[in-house]
Design brief:
420 residues, mainly alpha, two-stranded antiparallel sheet, binds (2R)-2,3-dihydroxypropanoic acid
């Protein structure tokens, strides 16, 4: 299937806007944080120089305070809402004012293992990554509770996951907000979040703007504050990978801080353990309540390599139960729950980047059979259905954006047998 690898490269080339890659034409016309990081690894399989430019453009959007934003608006484009005129970041380039899952440290670690050995480049990246991690700890866990918060569902990258339905539902709806959505002009409504979701997403942003994006105030008094196991687990792995980069570079000055972060977030994962369902789940920091259900983010425990023997046993049982339901990898939400929806964005469909992280996770847990199964099922899913944004877990049909960059990137990574 060499042709499909060429197709994957062409998709990424067509979505390239010079030195960065958009996730997909019209629907997402800018540079997104975790999309771009996964994409860079895919590009690394065939063009190392261009892959590093992708990373440089991400760092180009990094704020003075260390945050790497969710979206970087390098060039104007009116096909997306909310664009730079809503966020008003006052930065150059303009960006959104929230972040996204910090996979970039892990991606750079993988590049190192695949041959990126230039110490000047690596030291420069390392300093920027340390700054980003410090921003996360100081702004998303200001009381050092060992739980990282998201202050907007968009920060999780899994916008409309049922994981925070209670937190979203608790926001008073302003019926007079008229949100000029653009996403559903490109994609069927049944595959996207609802108008009501968007109304609430925007209310959260307007409240943050009232606070002048003061992160401490937003954490204490904002409309939304949830610990997403996805962010928690991705950050733990990112810190572990950053530590490995530090060792490679002999950056002894940073070892103790990295160890501190790894311990703090590792040790507090137990607060996400929900005895009612015997699984890791999301935690509403505002109400102190755990969500009584499992999503694909809960399953990233293996990616972070956390949990005691019993917890890992339970999680493995859940994994097998859920994987039994589909031939294509992991649905974004537990298919045995009533909130599961096979078409709707992060409420059920399968996402290839999640399959990628899960296959790494199961390798970490010495479950190489499961890991290989997820990998071969992801390849099959794409070969049979195309390079879509997400897929129906029952029938494999593609949904959302077509010719999607990170789906193409994961295909290249899996087909070239990288990492796992
Ligand atoms: C969107 O606009 O749908 C994105 O998920 C926000 O990051």
């Amino acid at each position: 299937m060499k042709d499909l690898q060429n197709k994957a490269k062409n998709i990424i080339r067509n979505n390239s806007r010079g030195n960065f890659t958009i996730p997909c034409d019209t629907l997402y016309p800018f540079q997104w944080n975790w999309d771009s990081a996964f994409c860079a690894l895919g590009i690394f399989t065939y063009n190392k120089e261009r892959a590093l430019k992708e990373i440089d453009m991400l760092f180009n959007g990094q704020w003075e305070n260390g945050m790497i934003p969710q979206i970087i608006f390098h060039k104007n484009n009116s096909s997306y809402f909310p664009g730079p005129e809503i966020w008003q970041s006052n930065t150059n380039p303009p960006t959104s004012c929230i972040s996204q899952p910090p996979v970039i440290s892990t991606i750079i670690w993988y590049m190192l293992t695949l041959g990126l050995h230039d110490k000047n480049i690596l030291n420069d990246y390392f300093d920027k990554l340390m700054k980003y991690h410090k921003w996360y700890v100081n702004n998303r866990d200001p009381y050092k509770k060992g739980l990282l918060s998201i202050i907007h569902p968009w920060e999780s990258g899994r916008d409309n996951s049922p994981d925070w339905d209670d937190a979203i539902d608790a926001i008073d709806v302003n019926p007079f907000l008229n949100i000029p959505r653009k996403d559903n002009q490109h994609i069927d409504n049944e595959q996207r979040p609802t108008n009501d979701d968007y109304n609430r997403y925007m209310q959260i942003i307007y409240k943050c703007k009232d606070f002048d994006w003061d992160n401490k105030k937003i954490y204490d008094e904002g409309l939304f504050n949830v610990c997403d196991p996805g962010i928690q687990f991705i950050f733990i792995k990112a810190c572990k990978d950053l530590y490995k980069i530090a060792v490679y570079l002999n950056r002894e000055d940073t070892y103790s801080l990295l160890e501190e972060w790894i311990d703090l977030y590792n040790n507090n994962c137990d607060k996400l353990w929900n005895n009612k369902v015997n699984a890791y789940s999301s935690f509403n920091i505002k109400t102190g309540k755990l969500h009584d259900c499992i999503s694909c983010a809960s399953m990233l425990y293996g990616y972070a390599n956390v949990g005691n023997e019993d917890q890992r046993k339970y999680m493995l049982e859940h994994s097998k139960r859920i994987l039994h339901f589909t031939n294509y990898g992991f649905p974004s939400y537990d298919p045995h729950q009533k909130r599961f929806d096979n078409k709707k964005y992060w409420r059920g469909p399968i996402w290839c980047i999640i399959n990628f992280m899960l296959s790494i996770g199961f390798t970490n847990c010495n479950e190489s059979q499961l890991s290989n199964k997820i990998k071969s099922n992801t390849i099959k899913l794409i070969e049979q259905n195309g390079f879509f944004e997400y897929f129906d877990p029952h029938v494999g049909r593609g949904y959302g954006g077509e010719n999607f960059s990170w789906t193409a990137a994961i295909y290249l990574i899996f087909k070239n047998d990288l990492l796992i």
